[in-house]
Amino acid sequence: MLKKSLFTLLSLLLTFGILAACSNEEAATDPSSDPSTEDSGEAVTITTARVLDDGTVFKDGEDVHDNVVTRWAEEELGIKFVTEWTQPNDEQFNTQLRLMMSSREKLPDVFLVSNNNIKADLIQSGLVMSIDEAIEEHATPRVKELFERFPEAFYPSTNEDAERFGVPRYSGGNGSDTLLWIRQDWLDKFDLEAPETLEELEHIMDVFVNEDPNESGRDDTIGITFAAGDEGFRGGNIADSSWVFGAFGDYVPGNWSQADDGSLVYGSIQPNVKDGLSKINEWYESGYLSTDFAILSAGDAQESFISGRSGIMAAPPWAHGYPIGEIAQVVPDAVVKPFPHVSGPNGEAGRRGEGLIVGSFLFNREFEHMDKFFEYWDAILGYTLGESEHFPHGLFEGYDYVMQDGEPVYDIAQFEEITGEDHVDPGRYFLPTNIPTIPYEMYGLLEEFHDTGRDPVNGYEANLAGREKDYIHAAAIVNKQNEIRIVNEFSGPPTDTMSSRSEHLERLEDELFVDIIYGNKPLDAFDQFVEDWLSSGGEQVTQEVNEWYESVR
């Protein structure tokens, strides 16, 4: 087995070496990659690598190497981007990074890394550079203000000496936070009001299960769609159940959250999680859940909602198109609407909150043009903020907008009628694989559009305001409930004890939770689980997590 593994690894290294050699040979024969252009003052060359998935659509004649964005960067900012290699997904991207790291091959100047383990290994390897000095010297005031507003976004790329190595690629902040999607036609059928509490939600589920809402004449409906087959109750957003635990307190399974003393504690062992398990057990015993929800992945579980057998599912706003929108193909008359999360017996509500970043930009330790990177980053950040000198109307005319009678037209149908061409998203061409997002900015704007009906004033706003009404409504609901977010404060790589004990600890958790819900063990078994979790490595993990937390803060 060892010989076979070594042979496989050597084969991979050889394969990637050949690919890299081919890539370097192509770059050498491509006059656009000639570094002498830097000496001539024409443009500074910055090399990169990226994930290039099917969602990035180029206009005819353009590709990742030559497109409207690369030409804009060179003409307007004096930056010539050279994409040395691409991969179709994060997994293959990370594999190539690891191979380059292990062979000490020269890394691109700048690249986005989403995996915290690889981030930590790259920082430890010495192949990437600390950026504290570059931020101080070259970041613009609005970039610095953003960094200061969300300092925890640097935690995943900070070493034990408190040096920062990665520029955050921010998430939407709450973009994947969930809310409830409910069959409005079923509510109307039985004259049911929108639920505000767990008790009211239970009444609705009882009706959905026992009153034949789909008029099939069979006992074939469930009250709510849950999925616990991917990560147990520790994560996921489609068919999420975190809000049930959040209705009883400030902790959700899998998250490390602040205790009253400011230290981090593991959510899965907190008393309110016991209360949440008790409630889900009641629902299971009442027939509100699918009998196999504990082994269903989110992809499998969502079928119960799409097929019209379930009346409720928690999911983010973006799920309105897929998977929720798929129900129209099976049940054309179905009407699904978004609703806020409900409160528990003490008036509490909570949901798992999305992390602040989707990755960090790391930089080759030999990279000499951080000034140009921050110039580029500030230029495209200005578009998101509506303060751009480069993009006063939209990103690029003929791509995401067209001028007619001196006014920009953003509507996709009108655009395509005027131009006779497909509308494309040039935001996907930028270095971060999309225009920069700012936590809570997007859903904040969508809430404003929903509540006030005001017109958008720039291309970024027009793109948002033109989206589906249910999506905008759902985003507004999520944003109004930001105070109930329960975030994971631990964003570092696995600690030493996590690496050796997490599989065992997670198995303890998953088996106990399912046994309680299925009624195979009494609720009080939770107390013994807490003791077992702590004594089986959890106490040491907690200590290591808090040591990390203190070091990055």
UniProtKB/TrEMBL annotation:
Source superkingdom: Bacteria
InterPro entries per UniProt: Bact_solute-bd_prot1, SBP
Gene3D superfamilies: Periplasmic binding protein-like II (3.40.190.10)
Keywords noted in UniProt: Signal
Signal peptide start-end: 1-20
Pfam families: SBP_bac_1
Protein name: ABC transporter substrate-binding protein
Taxonomic placement: Bacteria, Bacillati, Bacillota, Bacilli, Bacillales
